[in-house]
TrEMBL record:
Pfam families according to UniProt: Sigma70_r2, Sigma70_r4_2
UniProt xrefs under InterPro entries: RNA_pol_sigma-70-like, RNA_pol_sigma-70_dom, RNA_pol_sigma70_r2, RNA_pol_sigma70_r4_t2, RNA_pol_sigma_r2, RNA_pol_sigma_r3/r4-like, WH-like_DNA-bd_sf
Domain RNA polymerase sigma-70 region positions: 19-83
Record GO terms (molecular function): DNA binding; sigma factor activity
Domain RNA polymerase sigma factor 70 region 4 type stretches: 110-161
NCBIfam families to which the protein is assigned, alphabetical: sigma70-ECF
Assigned keywords, A-Z: DNA-binding, Sigma factor, Transcription, Transcription regulation
Statement: the UniProt record of this protein carries the keyword Transcription regulation: yes
Name recorded for this polypeptide: Sigma-70 family RNA polymerase sigma factor
GO BP annotation list: DNA-templated transcription initiation
Family stated for the protein in its record: Belongs to the sigma-70 factor family. ECF subfamily.
Gene3D superfamilies xrefs: 1.10.1740.10, Winged helix-like DNA-binding domain superfamily/Winged helix DNA-binding domain
Amino acid sequence: MIDECARRTIVIDLCLAERDSLRRYVTSILGRDSHAVEDVVQETLLRAWQLAERIEWQDRPVRMWLFRVARNLVVDQHRREGRAVPVGLDAADFEQARESDPAEEVTDRRLVVDLLARLSPAHREVVARIHLLGHAGEEVAAVLGVPLGTVKSRAHNAVRQIRAELTRGDWAGAAA
């Protein structure tokens, strides 16, 4: 059996060996903001050091654990900053979308209205507030007087229903 100090040293060595791949992964999410990337990498390694005795490095690769922690840190950072842009997208992605044909925009709007009409009123309100108006989940929960978990559940289920209908092609009549 490995003593606590030796176990911590082994886990830390494994984590440090993954430092470059972790940095590349975080860069792929955040872009070339070297300060933000370094902050996430350092915070991830600090958490690995703090939790070294609890990381199951024999059953699964440490890399996956590090990547998950880093991704969660990036998501938390974006939520704290109140950014409406999802992780991994930048303004250039949205500029390309804006160069569409006005006729397509009308069709797309009609499609969105039709799909929203198929949702229950509770689900429709959550989707509209979060995805169309850009409100935070906590804010929506407070306005609606429901728990945050309910808001998250409604948003998830509504988006899943919309995706399913788009996949089935049930919306074909909406654009006509």
